[in-house]
Design brief:
One of its GO terms (molecular function) is cysteine-type deubiquitinase activity. By secondary structure, the chain is of the alpha+beta class. It is elongated.
Length: about 700
């Protein structure tokens, strides 16, 4: 503040300042007499202000008004710069902290002291300290505009994004023979889960691959469901991508992608369709493939007290099982085979005598399906609902205990034999509380890798425990003998999956009200160990179908079929299906190579751009007001460092389209233009009120 002197009388109006003073409670102070304010010494109407009469006008930012410029036409650029205080020699010129000379001279007393944003270091040096906070409004400090991101290569990813290089197709590459997932096309999770389980049946897969087009129908064969199933199975086996799109298979089956079907009904209809196609094949083993692999026989009979017996045989592809909460599968089969007494009004035979009705399993297929009746009809609400009862099922099931008549079953229980022993090979799960919609997943043993996997459409994850994921008590470790070690390994696996989930996520179309897990990056499979002998049953509230495979015996040794499965020869896909997958693999490899080439080119371009940008911001500072300089805005420099410099290079490398090739003006109009309107007034001149947003740079480095 400058005080008035006798030679320069104060000519500004005075304002009355009233101070509020608290009054004592006990006594009142005597009232003061009001002082008369002095008369105003302001300008008279029409009188001009004589700025030369004011003290200090020689160095005033507005000293040129009335002396050097009497009207607007006489205002020069230097007048505007003076009004903004840019010609004030007392302003500090901060050294460039990014210049090599500045970095090297650590003992230079004028070197910039790089401090935290909110910390001002007080030293004995008279040189003003340069910091982000203290130099925020200094037009001659150019040190905190985003240069550090160029020094640390943080803008390299931004450069790729601006170049619109796209997603990296190599992220879709299959890793370490991990099973391939199937893309969900809207509401096709029920089909994806079944296909993943059927694919792991090597005999069934070989049968599908051995189907050939009938004579004269070669063209139509490629549009048939059986050929599209061959292509899908070939992709699951030979694809170089981690996800395959089964659109053509779904279209050939005429499935509605937006409408979810019952998985059990789909399984029956699809198997019926395949059986009809297999029966058209000339090879006898193919004509009976469904019968030989999945079909069993049971007998419904009635025996009267008069010893009259009537029986009716029936073929089945799956055994339907009713179950109560926490009931074992073996107990459900016992209940299924229990005899029923017919008496009273239910007497049998012409003479109406008591009788016994029975059900017997006569023949079992190599692959046995149990359909759990989880969807029931509620008579109280007259609606279909999902049962959340827990089912307990073993990893090994001795079906010899349930085969034949009651005498044969009793003998099998007393005999220590592994004949007709089955091992769990797949579980189909239904996630959700409703019987009308939800999400289907599968847990299946993969014979190629000898490991168990969870198949959730595109997401394929190696698992160490079967059944539901959340309840810890019902999980059964199938890869460790030690219970404590198994829990430790399971925790480590979950942590790996969580970290992989954070590293890469993928959005999928969900057809369920249940929140599905996000896309996880697969990790390297680990060898499967021997199953734990302590835990014999697996528990699940979501399982709706169980798949068991007959254990194969080798010589006199009887054991689990896992080892024999893993050493079986992998079926070879037909040439036509392989050609389709081969073209997809070639396209994927070419896309990966093209992406790598474009990224390498962008990295080289960025390296060149970095050197040019560094050359600019390392030499744009002024050391004296006498140098040639221009005024720009902080926003412009920050924008050039963060985005505009990269956009300018990319616009030069971009190939113009047809319209721009014929209209050069259109192409020029798309070049990046940086504006400094934020520091201009309404007359398009420098605005002295916006000095804090101004920056002064050397003219040779003007942008």
């Amino acid at each position: 503040m400058r005080l008035a002197t006798p030679s320069s009388p104060l000519r500004v109006p005075l304002f009355l300042v009233i101070y509020l003073i608290p009054l004592p409670i006990i006594s009142m102070a005597p009232r003061r007499r009001e002082r008369v304010s002095p008369s105003s010494q302001g300008l008279a109407p029409g009188e001009r202000l004589d700025r030369d009469a004011l003290a200090g006008n020689a160095s005033s930012t507005w000293g040129w008004v009335g002396t050097e410029a009497s009207n607007t036409s006489e205002i020069t650029t230097n007048h505007l710069l003076a009004a903004c205080g840019l010609l004030d020699p007392s302003r500090p010129f901060c050294r460039n902290k990014f210049k090599e000379t500045s970095r090297a001279s650590s003992t230079d007393p004028l070197a910039i002291k790089d401090t935290d944003d909110d910390v001002i270091v007080i030293s004995d040096d008279e040189t003003p300290t340069c910091s982000k906070k203290s130099c925020k409004s200094n037009p001659f400090c150019l040190n905190y505009l985003g240069q550090d991101k160029w020094e640390n290569d943080e803008h390299q990813e931004t450069f790729k994004e601006l170049a619109k290089v796209g997603s990296n197709p190599s992220e879709e590459t299959r890793i370490d023979d991990l099973p391939v997932g199937l893309r969900n096309l809207g509401a096709t999770c029920y089909a994806n889960a079944s296909l993943q389980v059927w694919f792991r049946d090597l005999a069934f897969r070989a049968g599908v691959f051995n189907c050939r087009p009938l004579e004269g129908l070669e063209d139509k064969f490629q549009e048939s469901p059986i050929f599209q199933l061959q292509v899908t199975f070939a992709a699951l086996q030979e694809s170089k991508q981690m996800v395959f799109n089964p659109t053509k298979l779904v279209e050939s089956l005429q499935l509605r992608t937006g409408e979810q079907q019952d998985a059990q009904e789909f399984s029956k209809l699809f198997m019926s369709h395949l059986d009809a196609e297999f029966k058209k094949q000339p090879t006898p083993s193919l004509r009976t493939l469904v019968h030989d692999q999945f079909e069993g026989k049971l007998v419904y009979g009635t025996i009267c007290a008069c010893q009259y017996r009537s029986e009716r045989s029936s073929d089945f592809l799956e055994i339907e099982v009713n179950f109560k909460n926490n009931q074992k599968l073996e107990d459900c089969l016992e209940f299924f085979l229990e005899t029923e007494k017919l008496s009273g009004d239910n007497q049998y035979c012409d003479s109406l005598q008591d009788a016994t009705r029975y059900t017997e399993l006569r023949e079992l297929p190599p692959v046995l399906h149990f359909s759990l009746l989880r969807f029931v009809y509620d008579l109280s609400t007259m609606e279909r609902k999902k049962s959340k009862n827990t089912i307990l099922f073993p990893k090994r099931l001795r079906m010899g205990h349930f085969l034949g008549n009651s005498t044969q079953r009793q003998q099998a229980r007393t005999a220590s034999t592994d004949e007709d022993t089955y091992e769990l090979s797949g579980i189909l799960l239904h996630k959700g509380t409703s019987a009308y919609h939800g999400h289907y997943e599968a847990q299946a043993f993969d014979p190629r890798s000898g490991s168990w996997y969870q198949f959730n459409d595109e997401v394929v994850t190696q698992i160490k425990s079967l059944g539901d994921k959340k309840p810890k008590k019902v999980e059964v470790d199938i890869e460790s003998d030690d219970e404590g070690e198994s829990k430790k390994q399971a925790t480590g696996t979950k942590r790996k999956k969580k970290l992989a989930s954070n590293s890469r996520k993928r959005q999928r179309v969900d057809d369920s009200e249940v929140e599905s897990p996000e896309r996880r990056k697969p990790y390297r499979p680990t060898p499967t160990l021997a199953p734990s002998a302590e835990s014999s049953h697996i528990s699940s509230k979501d399982a709706y179908m169980l798949i068991y495979t007959r254990v194969k015996t080798e010589g006199n040794l009887t054991g689990p079929s896992r080892k024999s499965k893993s050493i079986e020869s992998t079926p070879e896909p037909p040439s036509q299906a392989l050609q389709v997958i081969g073209r997809l693999n070639e396209t994927h490899v070419a896309a990966c190579e093209d992406y790598a080439r474009r990224v390498k080119m962008l990295e080289d371009t960025f390296a060149e751009l970095k050197l040019k940008v560094q050359e600019v911001y390392c030499n744009w500072n002024l050391s004296s007001i006498t140098e040639d300089w221009v005024v720009t805005s902080r926003k412009t420099l920050e924008g050039w460092l963060s985005k505009y410099s990269m956009q300018s290079v990319l616009s030069q490398q971009r190939v113009p389209d047809a319209a721009e090739a014929h209209d050069p003006a259109s192409s020029a109009a798309k070049q990046t233009i940086m504006s400094v309107e934020d520091i201009l007034c309404e007359h398009a001149r420098l605005d002295y009120r916006k000095v804090a947003q101004m920056k002064v740079i050397h003219r040779v480095n003007s942008l």
